[in-house]
Write a structure and sequence with these properties.
The complex is a heterodimer of chains A (about 110) and B (about 110).
Chain A: E1 4-7, E2 10-13, E3 19-25, E4 31-38, E5 42-49, E6 56-57, E7 64-67, E8 73-78, E9 87-94, E10 103-104, E11 108-112
Parallel strand pairs in A: 2-11
Antiparallel strand pairs in A: 1-3, 3-8, 4-5, 4-9, 5-6, 7-8, 9-10, 9-11
Chain B: E1 3-7, E2 10-14, E3 19-26, E4 30-38, E5 45-50, E6 56-59, E7 62-66, E8 70-75, E9 84-92, E10 101-102, E11 106-111
Parallel strand pairs in B: 2-11
Antiparallel strand pairs in B: 1-3, 3-8, 4-5, 4-9, 6-7, 7-8, 9-10, 9-11
The chains are: A mainly beta (about 110), B mainly beta (about 110).
């Protein structure tokens, strides 16, 4: 049981390039989330999904897109990367019912130059 | 708008010196308050969920308590391995999507 996994772990992009971050969970959770964490800002929600085929905007969605074609996977895309998107990105998942705690992946450190 | 404020921003303790971390919150109806631990370079690790004022939960040297306006994470006789950033988050009872609002975290350093 791997929990929540993220690929890649590190990435360096040039301004204007695109990339996709992959999140996978093996806990059969309905909810999945993408956060970014910046120094002094805490964790901020980018997008989230309440089930396969659904997505919704979080607190800081501009410049990102997401897709959830399979229940276990949640993809975060950057179509045209900007230096302001330099951050550490975390994926999380939680169950539909129960205690609602979220389980986090190990993170992806992205640098945009 | 839901808000979470954690204090102090950083705390340095001597091994064995007990202390408390504070999490103040405002939320439109509390469904749950969550504590996480985050080690450098890793994702947050779930510690506790508290649901109602007066509730307490313990895990080893950690004890979390909850009132209607704040939560405390008490650390008893800390060890160097307790050094980490501790995050507090709240979930509102309104809405069905289980979104969490996080505080900025408290960085705890425990010296041997």
């Amino acid at each position: 049981n791997a929990g929540v996994t993220q690929t890649p772990k590190f990435r360096v992009l040039k301004t204007g390039q695109s990339m996709t971050l992959l999140c996978a969970q093996d806990m059969n959770h309905e909810y999945m989330y993408w956060y970014r964490q910046d120094p002094g800002m805490g964790l901020r929600l980018i997008h989230y999904s309440v089930g396969e085929g659904t997505t919704a905007k979080g607190e800081v969605p501009d410049g990102y897109n997401v897709s959830r074609l399979k229940k276990q996977n949640f993809l975060l895309g950057l179509e045209s990367a900007a230096p302001s998107q330099t951050s550490v990105y975390f994926c999380a998942s939680s169950a539909l019912r129960g205690s609602y705690e979220q389980y986090f992946g190990p993170g992806t450190r992205l640098t945009v130059t | 708008e839901d808000q979470v404020t954690q204090s102090p921003e950083a705390l340095r303790l001597q091994e064995g010196e007990s202390s408390s971390l504070n999490c103040s919150y405002t939320v439109s109806g509390l469904r749950g308050l969550f504590w996480y631990r985050q080690d450098p370079g890793k994702g947050p690790e779930f510690l506790f969920t508290l649901y109602s004022a007066g509730e307490e939960k313990e895990k080893e040297r950690l004890k979390a308590t909850l009132t209607k306006k704040e939560s405390f994470l008490h650390i008893t006789a800390p060890k160097p391995e307790d050094s980490a950033t501790y995050l507090c988050a709240v979930q509102a009872s309104t809405g069905a999507n289980s979104k969490l609002t996080f505080g900025k975290g408290i960085t705890l350093s425990v010296r041997p």
